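Here is the promised in-class demo. Please do not try to memorize the tokens; focus on the logic of going from shape to residues.
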């Protein structure tokens, strides 16, 4: 589902440019990756913005920051957007901010950056609103076998989980007659001002086609709560109590 004109009143439409974000948050650190041991890699906005405009990496670093709302200065980003009315009924809010798992991300990256093929955690659904740039999506139904969606280690090497690798190595297979017809991708060209809704349990991969700035949130609604509850009891038992 693609929603248009759902963010016309957002302050982010004028405030979220690379130049303005660099000025306002220049010394604030944002998570833009992980090292080989799984620890967060963070860069100050003034350095990341330079990298974003000048890098030639095959799979560039990508700001995907879930802690911005808890930071005294970065939390001002929350003032620039609001949750679309269709997704305001988020049951996780009843767990309280300190207890709920990460659920909102400020995302910003250059061409070729993105997120590899995955299903969102705990059965949650998600919405993704883009302010600048364009994203390419491929979305697959829940019954699609994982083994045909993942980039083989023999082909992808250390980059097998990157979106750019997926579109280069797996996407062409989805266009062949041999690809299961009930597992064909839904493809979206995500443009500024549009919000993409991803139902819980659906596989998806996202590639930035140019310099992109967006915000995304995961949520549990009455519709998907039974599945979310089942997965939370198993995966986050303390949260379910």
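The designed amino acids, position by position:
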């Amino acid at each position: 589902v693609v929603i248009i004109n759902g963010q016309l009143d957002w302050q982010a439409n004028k405030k979220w440019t690379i130049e303005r974000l660099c000025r306002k948050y220049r010394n604030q650190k944002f998570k833009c990756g992980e090292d080989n041991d799984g620890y967060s890699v963070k860069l100050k906005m003034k350095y990341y913005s330079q990298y974003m405009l000048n890098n030639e990496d095959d799979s560039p670093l990508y700001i995907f920051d879930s802690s911005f709302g808890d930071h005294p200065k970065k939390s001002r980003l929350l003032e620039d957007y609001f949750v679309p009315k269709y997704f305001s009924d988020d049951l996780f809010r009843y767990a309280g901010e300190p207890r709920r798992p990460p659920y909102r991300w400020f995302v910003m990256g250059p061409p070729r950056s993105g997120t590899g093929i995955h299903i969102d955690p705990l059965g949650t659904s998600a919405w993704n609103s883009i302010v600048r740039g364009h994203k390419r999506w491929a979305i697959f139904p829940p019954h699609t076998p994982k083994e045909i969606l993942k980039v083989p280690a023999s082909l992808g090497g250390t980059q097998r989980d990157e979106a750019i690798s997926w579109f280069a190595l797996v996407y062409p297979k989805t266009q062949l007659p041999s690809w299961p017809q009930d597992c064909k991708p839904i493809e979206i060209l995500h443009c500024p001002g549009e919000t993409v809704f991803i139902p819980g349990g659906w596989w998806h991969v996202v590639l930035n086609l140019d310099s992109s700035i967006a915000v995304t949130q995961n949520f549990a609604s009455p519709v998907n709560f039974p599945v979310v509850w089942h997965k939370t009891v198993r995966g986050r038992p303390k949260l379910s109590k």
